[in-house]
Amino acid sequence: MNDSDSEDSLPFPSSICHGCGAPPRYVKTATSMFILCPLKEDKYPRQPVMACDLFVTRDGKDREK
Ligand code: SF4
Question: What is the pTM of this model?
């Protein structure tokens, strides 16, 4: 997430992608914003993502299971 992205401006606020250290990229178009995942084969997972096997913490570690 860029510093310029406020929490309010993020799409799908309930998505766990926002807290993921993958990290996701935010792709803006004129009318929408998409969350691009650098780890998944389908770069634009269906949102909001509520669970993900590839989620990593911001320090780069796998989430404890
Ligand atoms: S790895 Fe999963 S949780 Fe992380 S950005 Fe990609 S889809 Fe979202």
Answer: 0.81
